[in-house]
Amino acid sequence: MTSPHPALLQYVKTHLPRFRRELDELLVIPSVSTESARQGQVLAAAEWTAQALRALGCGRVESFPTPGAPLVYGESIPAGGSAPTVLIYGHYDVQPVDPLELWQSDPFQPVVRGEDLYARGASDMKGQILAVLKAVEAVLSAGAKRPAFKFLFEGEEEIGSTHLPEFIRTHRDLLACDLCLNPDAGMIAPELPTITYGLRGLAYFELRLRGPSHDLHSGMYGGVVHNPAQVLCELVAAMHEPSGRVNLPGFYDVVRPLDPEERRELGRLPMDEAFYLRASGAPALWAGEQGFTPFERVGARPTLEVNGLSSGFTGEGSKTVLPAEAMGKISMRLVPDQTPEQVTSQLEAFLRQRVPASVRWELKRLAGGPPSISARESPGVRALARALGEAWGQAPVFRREGGSIPVVAYLQEYLGVESLLTGFSLPEDNAHSPNEKLHLPTWQKGIAALALFFSYLAE
Ligand code: BES
Ligand code: MN
């Protein structure tokens, strides 16, 4: 059988300028899901994806409202025969842009500098949504063998996919499929196509401590009234043991150990200390949990992070004050078989034990999602590996990822469906940071690779 490669590649090349324009249309919509003032923009991005599915010729496109952002569903004309059905997942929401002053250009006015396109969401993941839509367009236009397509786009991924599990649970027939393609995971390096098979989960909290009924003069009350900012720092410091382990009761009880074979394989990936030093810009790395490599600590071990702290006076100059309140945003990345519910109880137990009577505490649970491990061997994985290998001239590597994509676990749990995780964002693309970007040559290869994947999947 002749390879569909040349026709598909040619299609992508010919239409690339239009693909870029369409990407710009989506990138200018500031769909920041965590900001309530942006709800209209989140809706506009949902509508954009629905419109894109109609333009693709989907016979059915439906936007399901939720108490949060809508879930956009679409399906293409059936492929006929025994062709498999692939569910394509994407999220049209993006992270906040702050600190805005560190952006070199407006986050919602995409611009090209060098080989990169700069905008919030360029790589996470509006660029990936375009890549997969255009790959579908390419196989449809080339008349190549293809699977049947279903699409599911959500607008709450960056805040923990709040309304997604309920939707999946109650729309099993609608979403029935053989596998899911999820292009929200990135690559290790531009020359290394990557398939991700492990994602960490997340449990995110806001911890508030309240001491005196109002801010006090630090000279009149310091040394007598317990300072909530100090209590918060003491609590946060106690959340890690000196060995780098997380100090919540029972935190490691259900953590699946890494088997030696997998450790050997992960050890071969070019993700050593030097990589993390370079990519992070930190003056030195933290020793972290003893007994594990940096890559294992990020991908396969659970962690606890302080995302933000606020209390008291942070303006210009000095103000002698003993603050009434302190707040910390604290999150944990989870690995199988931990659950957000479990670590919530563990954190509550920790606080009950340790918060002194001198302050009152309140813990609110925010974003979250379960961890997942995906199959590394299946016809889908083989088709994807072949397509990536062909587009890059280099076989893909298999990795675990420290970030979270909640939908993967929900599809496993409610539909028994496995996700293929890939994507064309790079570690240096500044996801969630100022100056997020997309490496355009890698993006173009990615579109071609996905088009090849669809045609191989149908063979
Ligand atoms: N695309 C990321 C997940 C990711 C990060 C994949 C890095 C591969 C490499 C996704 O959009 C994301 O950021 N998810 C959130 C989810 C959370 C709010 C439940 C995350 O990981 O912080
Ligand atoms: Mn993200």
Number of strands: 18
Largest sheet, spatial ordering of strands:
1-2-6-3-7-17
Strand content: 15-25%
- Which CATH class of the largest domain is shown? Alpha Beta
Which molecules are bound in this entry?
ligand BES, manganese (II) ion
Number of helices: 14
Q: What is the CA-atom radius of gyration, in angstroms? A: 23 Å
- How many distinct folded domains? 2
Q: What CATH architecture of the largest domain would you give?
A: 3-Layer(aba) Sandwich
> Which stretches are low in confidence, meaning pLDDT under 50 for 5 or more residues running?
none
> CATH homologous superfamily of the largest domain, by name?
Zn peptidases
Roughly how many Å apart are the termini?
10 Å
Descriptive account of the structure:
The protein has 459 residues and is an alpha+beta fold. It folds into 2 domains: 6-199 and 371-458, Zn peptidases (Aminopeptidase), CATH 3.40.630; 201-255 and 302-369, Alpha-Beta Plaits (2-Layer Sandwich), CATH 3.30.70.360. The chain has 14 helices and 18 strands. It is globular, with a radius of gyration of 23 Å. The termini are close together. The model has no long low-confidence stretch (mean pLDDT 96).
Record keyword descriptors for this entry.
Alpha-Beta Plaits, 459 residues, 4-stranded antiparallel beta sheet, 2 domains, 6-stranded mixed beta sheet, Aminopeptidase, single chain
